[in-house]
Design brief:
- The complex is a heterodimer of chains A (about 400) and B (about 575).
- Chain A folds into two domains: about 220 residues, Up-down Bundle (f41 fragment of flagellin, N-terminal domain), CATH 1.20.1330; about 110 residues, no CATH class.
- Chain A is built from seven helices and 13 strands.
- In chain A, the strands form four sheets. In chain A, strands 3, 4, 6, 7, 8 and 11 form a six-stranded antiparallel beta sheet that branches. In chain A, strands 5-10-9 form a three-stranded antiparallel beta sheet, with no helix packed on it. In chain A, strands 1-2 form a two-stranded antiparallel ribbon.
- In chain A, helix 1 runs antiparallel to helix 7, helix 2 runs antiparallel to helix 3 and helix 5 packs antiparallel against helix 6.
- In chain A, about 35% of the residues are buried.
- Among the domains of chain B are: about 100 residues, no CATH class; about 100 residues, no CATH class; about 100 residues.
- Chain B has a four-stranded antiparallel beta sheet. Chain B has a three-stranded antiparallel beta sheet with strand order 9-16-11, with no helix packed on it.
- In chain B, strand 7 and strand 8 form a beta hairpin.
- Classes of the chains: A alpha+beta (about 400), B alpha+beta (about 575).
- The interface between A and B is large, with 56 and 66 residues.
């Protein structure tokens, strides 16, 4: 084949520019320490790398969530632990005061201590993390417990059949000693705007007050029950039916009277892909629900205090047994929180393993093998030098050199 | 003496040609010329036949038509891939994903911000941070989408220049055709004019695929590969550009589909196929994001316990358009979050005027108190089983309504077109972080309710069917298939696709370059000037010239001797 000068020069040009480009690529890789500097460097690798980066970013976020959850659970644990101590103290007190060794004055003094214990429990129940009440369920800006009772809004229920179409509101100032859960049931409505009859239950609808009450739309009506004489007939809680037109027989409403102002909702954090962990214990789970005479710690302490004030040894003995129940309940909650904290530890380890794995994988895709790149650079350099050398040799060859 | 004179002239011409070759050693497109020498015919006068010396017959070109044609073709391919590669290099830079601030990163930040919010749903700092991250993501989408649009728009500017260049080249070729025909009519080969014309043809083939053939008179007919005439003899036809159309000879019929290869082919492919396809896919992703987040957000509750707030501007819901001939002196507002997955137009006709009303043929009930024909009427799709796409669409008749019997109107629900461009925070949440619906309870006291934030952040890992568009035939065929995966994966694959396309363009460019190099070598081996060869030729002619002059000398001496005999 005939080889001409322009062919030679063109070849030299192209070869040198090709090697220069390769040198630039290797140099860019070494400079950035990255194998992939633009999508076309390794399209498939980049897609993998992007996926992995996202996973890593998620893992990082899970870590943040877990730390948040951990701080809540630890605060919960420590509050429940303190509550456990207070219950133990109350139990010790009940044990002492149930014996005949102590007189009325001692019991009156002990009553003061029970009051202190109650106040400390309210304080524990209002534990905050970063300004949020951890025992209030979802109502984290509302203090979970108050020393006074709150009459909560009337809620339709608990029965489902028939549907509740009436509307009721609750008002009043509660004068009783214990938390309450009233169920109000419409027993008869006369079909006309004006009056309806209802009855009241204090045990969730198991037993009903023997008296029925007639209400009118005119205004608030006292809710009370004479089912049990323990509760005075007038406790200050009132109900008003504001939408009498749709109120029908068998409609039920619940009114809770309690020191608890939070709700029963869970607080969840995300600790992994579609894995959530509950970080709270609702206040009424921790310290007893309204109307629950055997487990509500505040009611038990109120009864205990009442018995002490009235020098009622039998009542003190009853309180001792009830405190035992409450302590069991608290122990269960502590165990529950403990197991969740345990789960957090396991999860943390798992995430840190995952993070390690994914970082290694990402590094395998993205990061530059320095040794290989350096070797590459050296060999490219050699090729470049050789090309330049050969170019210099070839271009120097001409017949002209030999013509005089 | 005459023989010597002829020889001197011939060798001198040989030197001229050699000199011309040497002078043009670096001229692109120059074809090596060779002097054809011929011995003069012998005189038949005597029995001894004597030659009459040499004459320079002609100067020919060492031209290989086949290789030249091949080079023309490959030049078009090379220019096409070069152009695609350089544009795609830019486009992949838009995605910016090898760095830390790509859309991938800001989207991950967006999802993480939802998780931060779920950890403290009542926190203003978390809410504000979420809006900030969402805004970053919105800008990420818009940045890529606008970059793609701009690149697409630039294609028309490029095309304008390219078409002007074609016209100029056609004009020059036509003029050269005329000169070559004139020059060769008197029998001489117009070698240098032909070289010029060849190099114009090469330039033309950089712009688009062309075909050409030479007529007997030396004129070249040039057309596009698809057969659109560009030059014939001394005539040429101009191309012109109007918007997205390219016209031939000012006939208003778009011929752009017939222009393939070269820079113009590449620009058209990019403008009508490659870039719109990525734009459509970015739109699908953004539209899915807007729809999915809004769908959950709409059902959630804000800090003050209100609901039905959008997180993103509700672009998936189209405007209400009117249709029909009846009294339409009422305004209809469409709302809700559309849960279908295709564009739809709902047409409503109000059948009667005694409530409740049936609207349309598919039993839409208007819950409308009798006697009132103004105010807000909610149309809900009850018993509407024929069309599964009706869900979520609500209609409000705004104040001043006067709905009448047989009134007709329609609502169009748009697809995700332009979603990546129009994506924006809704006016509900922009500047009002409290309106982020993190809660699923309408009780404003439940400041800790994070149920909705949890539901929304779970979208990050949700396997969704997102449409993936494939454009073919310069956008003439647009097909889509559902791609199952998370939104993040969809995006990551998209970036990979672009990288792959760019890589392929680069590989094709290398391949074409190699082919052209080989062809150039082949061409040069025939047509190129070798200096060594020319030096030898020069010496050859030089010695022949010296020898011829010696002959003059010898003849002269012979004559001198004859003349001396006389004196």
């Amino acid at each position: 084949m005939r080889v001409t000068q322009s062919t030679i020069y063109q070849n030299i040009n192209q070869n040198i520019s090709k090697i220069t480009e390769q040198l630039k690529d290797v140099n860019e890789q070494i400079g950035s320490q990255q194998r992939i500097n633009k999508p076309s460097d390794d399209p498939l690798g980049l897609t993998h790398a992007l996926n992995l980066k996202e996973v890593l970013s998620q893992i990082n976020q899970y870590g943040t969530n877990i730390n948040h959850g951990q701080s809540w659970l630890q605060a919960t644990e420590s509050a429940l632990q303190s509550a456990q101590d207070l219950i133990t103290r109350a139990k010790t007190l009940a044990n002492q005061m149930s014996t005949e060794t102590y007189n009325a004055t001692d019991r009156a003094n002990a009553a003061q201590e029970v009051q202190n214990i109650t106040e400390q429990l309210v304080q524990l129940g209002n534990t905050q993390v970063n300004g949020r009440y951890i025992f209030s369920g979802d109502k984290d800006r509302t203090a979970a417990f108050g020393l006074d009772f709150t009459i909560h809004p009337a809620v339709a229920g608990p029965g489902n059949d028939p549907a509740y179409t009436g509307t009721a509101t609750s008002t009043g100032t509660y004068t009783g000693l214990y938390s309450k859960r009233y169920v109000v049931e419409i027993t008869a409505d006369d079909g006309a705007v004006g009056t309806a009859q209802y009855r009241v239950s204090e045990d969730g609808g198991v037993t009903w007050g023997t008296n029925t009450f007639t209400t009118s739309l005119a205004g608030p009506t006292d809710v009370y029950s004479d089912n049990s004489r323990e509760v005075p007939p007038d406790q200050g809680v009132q109900i008003a039916f504001t939408n009498f037109g749709t109120l029908t027989q068998d409609d039920q409403f619940t009114i809770e009277v309690s020191q608890y102002n939070g709700d029963q909702d869970d607080m969840n954090v995300i600790i992994g892909p579609s894995a959530q962990l509950k970080t709270n214990v609702a206040g009424d789970t921790a310290f007893g629900q309204a109307g629950d005479t055997t487990n509500n710690l505040f009611d038990i302490l109120a009864g205990f205090k009442d018995s002490l004030q009235n020098n009622n040894t039998l009542g003190v003995q009853a309180a001792l047994a009830q405190l035992g129940n409450a302590q069991d309940n608290n122990t269960n909650n502590l165990a529950d929180v403990g197991s969740r904290l345990n789960r957090i530890d396991v999860n943390k380890n798992m995430l840190s393993d995952l993070e390690g794995n994914n970082t290694t994988r990402l590094s395998g895709i993205e990061d530059l093998d320095i040794a290989k790149a350096t070797l590459d650079l050296n060999s490219k350099q050699m090729i470049f030098q050789a090309a330049l050398y050969s170019a210099a040799k070839v271009t120097g060859l001409s017949l002209l050199n030999y013509l005089k | 003496m005459n023989i010597a004179r002829g020889a001197l002239l011939a060798q001198q011409k040989g030197l001229d040609v050699t000199g011309h070759n040497i002078a043009n050693v670096n001229t692109p497109g120059y074809t090596r010329q060779t002097l054809i020498l011929q011995s003069s015919e012998e005189t038949p006068l005597t029995r001894i036949k004597l030659g009459f010396g040499v004459t320079a017959d002609s100067v020919t070109q060492a031209f290989d038509r086949f290789t030249a044609k091949n080079i023309t073709e490959k030049t078009a391919s090379l220019a096409e891939y070069e152009t695609k590669k350089s544009t795609l290099d830019y486009v992949q830079g838009l995605f910016n994903e090898a760095t830390e601030n790509g859309l991938n990163k800001v989207t991950a930040d967006f999802w993480n911000a939802w998780q931060d919010l779920s950890n403290n749903p009542g926190g203003m700092a978390e809410r504000t941070a979420l809006l900030e991250k969402a805004q970053n993501m919105v800008q990420g989408f818009q940045g890529i989408r606008n970059g793609l649009t701009q690149t697409k728009d630039e294609m028309n500017i490029n095309l304008k220049g390219g078409i002007e260049e074609i016209n100029t080249l056609d004009d020059q070729i036509a003029k050269l055709n005329e000169r070559i025909v004139e020059a060769e009519a008197i029998g001489t080969k117009a070698n240098d004019l032909r070289d010029q014309r060849n190099s114009l043809i090469q330039n033309l083939s950089q712009l688009t695929d062309i075909a050409y053939l030479e007529k007997d008179n030396g004129a070249l007919t040039v057309m596009t590969k698809s057969g659109i005439a560009l030059v014939d003899g001394n005539l040429y036809w101009t191309l012109s550009q109007q918007g997205d159309n390219i016209y031939w000879n000012n006939i208003t019929s778009d011929i752009s589909s017939q222009l393939t290869g070269g820079k113009i082919g590449a620009w058209l492919d990019l403008r009508d196929n490659i870039l719109p396809q990525y734009m459509a896919n970015m739109d699908e992703l953004a539209g899915t994001m807007v729809y999915q987040v809004n769908n959950l957000h709409y059902g959630g509750y804000t800090m003050d316990g209100s609901t039905h707030k959008y997180f993103f501007d509700n672009t998936s819901m189209g405007d209400v358009g009117y249709d029909g001939t009846n009294t339409e002196n009422f305004t209809v507002l469409a709302g809700g979050v559309y849960s279908g997955n295709a564009d739809k137009t709902f047409t409503f006709t109000i059948d009667g005027l005694g409530g409740p009303y049936t609207v349309g043929t598919d039993s839409f009930h208007v819950d409308w108190t009798a006697g009132i024909n103004s105010g807000t009427i909610n149309v809900t799709a009850t018993n509407y089983t024929n069309l599964s796409v009706a869900d979520g669409v609500t209609i409000d008749f705004s104040s001043g309504d006067d709905v009448g019997h047989t009134d007709k109107f329609s609502i169009s629900v748009q697809d995700n077109a332009d979603a990546a461009k129009t994506i924006a925070l809704s006016s509900d949440v922009a500047g009002t972080p409290g309106n982020i619906a993190a809660s699923q309870s309408n009780d404003p006291e439940e400041t800790g309710n994070n149920q909705n934030a949890l539901a929304i952040q779970a979208l990050q890992d949700e396997q969704l069917n997102v449409k993936k568009w494939t454009y073919q035939n310069r956008g003439g065929i647009q097909s889509n298939a559902s791609q199952l995966g998370t939104m993040d994966e969809y995006y990551n694959i998209l970036v990979g696709d672009i990288g792959l396309l760019d890589k392929q363009a680069g590989q094709n460019q290398d391949l074409q370059q190699t082919l052209i190099n080989q062809l150039n070598e082949l061409r040069d081996s025939v047509s190129g000037v070798s200096l060594d060869e020319e030096m030898i030729n020069m010496m050859k002619y030089q010695y022949a010239y010296i020898a011829a002059s010696k002959m003059v000398n010898a003849s002269d001496q012979l004559l001198q001797s004859v003349l001396a005999m006389r004196s």
